[in-house]
Design a protein that fits this description.
- By secondary structure, this protein is α+β, with helices and mostly antiparallel strands.
- It has a single domain (1-139), classed as Sufe protein. Chain: A (Alpha-Beta Complex).
- Helix content is 49%, strand content 19%.
- It is built from 5 helices and 3 strands; from the N terminus they run αβββαααα.
- The protein has helices at residues 3-16, 64-77, 82-96, 103-108, 122-143, and strands spanning 29-35, 40-49, 52-61.
- Strand 1 and strand 2 (40-49) form a beta hairpin.
- Helix 1 (3-16) crosses helix 2 (64-77).
- Residues 17-36 are annotated as: Disordered.
- InterPro entries: NIF_FeS_clus_asmbl_NifU_N.
- Pfam families: NifU_N.
Length: 144
């Protein structure tokens, strides 16, 4: 099995059995996102206490890439400070925009790094970044 097949399998795994697709009661931050191009529709919910993302989940539906990306995002930012989470969001957006990341930045994205090749599929870029942009908007509310 080649590396690309492993990446594809990981995306399908997150889509078919998303670890973080669930209601999150007592969410302190909630934001809805929609991608009209593909029909992806999701709501990011997080519990942020003392500047730490204690728990995060999403609800909604969409294509395999949007659902896998949302699930991976939750894994990446859970337990991190809001500042660290925002840095991860910024790195992921840069990755999808084909900007160069150093090894430390790549490692910080954990499994979400497998979505890197989505940048070669312009019609799917919005699918991949929807959850990340949505969470970024949610975090702006706690800064205000």
């Amino acid at each position: 099995m080649n590396l690309q097949q492993l990446y594809t399998d990981l995306i399908l795994e997150h889509n078919q059995d998303p670890r973080n697709h669930r209601p999150l009661t007592n969410a302190t931050v909630t934001e809805h996102g929609h991608n009209p191009n593909c029909g992806d529709d999701l709501t990011m919910n997080a519990i942020i206490t003392d500047g730490i993302v204690e728990d995060i989940a999403y609800e909604g539906q969409g294509c395999a890439i949007s659902q896998a990306s949302a699930s991976m995002l939750c894994d990446v930012v859970r337990g991190k400070s809001v500042k660290e989470a925002k840095a991860c969001i910024e790195r992921f957006i840069r990755l999808i925009q084909r900007e160069e990341l150093n090894e430390e930045e790549r490692e910080s994205l954990e499994e979400a790094i497998v979505l890197e090749n989505v940048s070669q599929l312009p019609a799917r870029v919005k699918c991949a970044v929807l959850a990340w942009h949505t969470l970024d908007e949610a975090m702006k509310k706690i800064e205000a």
